[in-house]
């Protein structure tokens, strides 16, 4: 992993000066150059990745041709959900065997490459979907902008997830503040991923508790440890992606907003993986509300779908149900509270502090347990994990 990051730094060190050496009038040539660099990097990571991205690009082009041929837009919107169908192939084809054939001597790295490939493939499906909807809605990007949003190496693996918007008007020149911010965010992201994340992931239960905990306590400690590791992994990648984009005059959206301050499941999703949350709100929640007129049902259905999008497996299906049910209940209680008359005197500060603290503990525990449950290799392991939380 460090070797791969070193390669990224070398690539940035060589490509950033070349990119900005081109005149501002050559904006299209700059994007072509960056697209070529991204394609080379994806190919170096795995030919499988580049082939898959090319397939998604072809599908987007087919939709563009259909829009140009005046096909029914409502029908195209329905068909556009088929862009997620390739993700189902992961469950039915021997992906390890396919990647091994493509990698040749690098087949020993299949496990690591498979993780990169499948996560990047999932995000590519969402990006392709967003670009397709932009085209259908009459806000089509240029072909070059669409390609850039699909292949930009900075955000390919871990987001943020965007359509073509950040690539439509990149900065004409590199401002000093943007350059310093980009370098700082790359450095901070590297520190989060390689130092803090590795320290947390490598700590044992004794290191966390100070003494050797019993079996149940160790399971709870590991649950929080795994969730914190996931966050540091995810936010470290996001920081590197956002900083990398800034060095090319591209502004990607933020992906996290201090999620560990959340005191409810709703607030958690207002702080965690913001680009995925924006996708859920725009393309799942709002259409479902318009269809059924029930926001609580809509948010539940949206997260069940998102759970299956993560992986077509029972643990992730139940993860979606868990988050959807939590958000639906939170929404219902807020709606009920809004209908009640407000008390004349607010609760004392101490009571509100206790309520906020209890909400924080419950929220962090709830999302951490759901995360560990979903990451279990199969439903048997997931159920055994839940039972072990209670000493069974």
Summary?
This protein has 392 residues and is mainly alpha-helical. It has helices at residues 2-21, 27-45, 47-68, 73-80, 85-92, 95-103, 110-136, 143-151, 176-202, 205-209, 215-246, 265-269, 274-292, 295-310, 314-339, 349-374, 379-388. The protein is 73% helix and 0% strand.
Approximately how much beta-strand content do the residues carry? under 5%
Give the biggest beta sheet.
none
Shape: globular
Distance between the termini: 37 Å
Low-confidence stretches: none
Helix content: over 70%
Count of domain modules: 3
Task: Give me the secondary-structure category.
Answer: mainly alpha
Average residue-wise pLDDT: 85
Count of DSSP H/I helices: 17
DSSP strand tally: 0
| CA-based gyration radius | 23 Å
H/E topology pattern: HHHHHHHHHHHHHHHHH
Structure in words:
With about 400 residues, the chain is mostly helical. The protein has three domains: about 160 residues; about 80 residues; about 130 residues, no CATH class. Helix content is about 75%, strand content about 0%. It contains 17 helices and no strands. The longest helix has about 30 residues. It is globular. The two termini are about 35 Å apart. The mean pLDDT is about 85.
């Amino acid at each position: 992993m460090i070797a791969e990051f070193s390669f990224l730094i070398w690539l940035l060190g060589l490509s950033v000066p070349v990119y900005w050496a081109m005149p501002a009038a050559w904006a299209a040539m700059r994007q072509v150059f960056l697209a070529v660099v991204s394609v080379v990097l994806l190919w170096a990571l795995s030919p499988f990745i580049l082939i898959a991205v090319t397939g998604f690009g072809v599908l987007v082009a087919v939709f563009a041709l259909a829009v140009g041929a005046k096909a029914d837009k409502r029908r195209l919107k329905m068909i556009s959900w088929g862009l997620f169908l390739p993700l189902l192939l992961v469950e039915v084809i021997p992906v390890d065997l396919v990647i091994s054939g493509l990698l040749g001597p690098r087949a020993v790295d299949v496990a690591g490459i498979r993780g990169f490939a499948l996560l990047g493939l999932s995000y590519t499906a969402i990006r392709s979907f967003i670009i397709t909807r932009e085209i259908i809605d009459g806000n089509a990007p240029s072909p070059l902008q669409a390609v850039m949003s699909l292949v930009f190496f900075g955000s390919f693996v871990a987001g943020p997830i965007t359509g073509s918007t950040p690539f439509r008007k990149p900065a004409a020149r590199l401002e000093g503040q943007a350059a310093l911010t980009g370098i700082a965010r790359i450095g901070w992201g590297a520190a989060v991923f390689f130092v803090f994340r590795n320290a947390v992931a490598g700590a044992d239960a004794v290191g966390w508790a100070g003494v050797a905990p019993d079996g149940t306590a160790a399971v709870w400690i590991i649950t929080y440890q795994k969730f914190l590791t996931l966050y540091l992994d995810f936010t470290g990648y996001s920081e590197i992606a956002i900083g990398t984009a800034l060095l090319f005059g591209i502004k990607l959206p933020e992906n996290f907003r201090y999620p560990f301050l959340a005191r409810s499941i709703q607030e958690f999703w207002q702080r965690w993986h913001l680009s995925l949350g924006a996708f859920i709100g725009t393309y799942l929640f709002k259409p479902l509300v318009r269809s059924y007129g029930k926001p609580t049902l809509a948010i539940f259905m949206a997260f069940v779908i998102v759970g299956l999008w993560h992986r077509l497996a029972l643990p992730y299906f139940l993860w979606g149900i868990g988050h959807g049910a939590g958000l639906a209940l939170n929404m219902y209680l807020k709606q009920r509270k809004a209908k009640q008359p407000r008390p004349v005197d607010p609760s004392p500060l101490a009571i509100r502090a206790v309520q906020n603290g209890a909400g924080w503990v419950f929220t962090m525990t709830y999302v951490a347990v759901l995360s560990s449950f979903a990451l279990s290799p199969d439903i048997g392991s997931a159920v055994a994990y839940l039972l072990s939380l209670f000493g069974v």
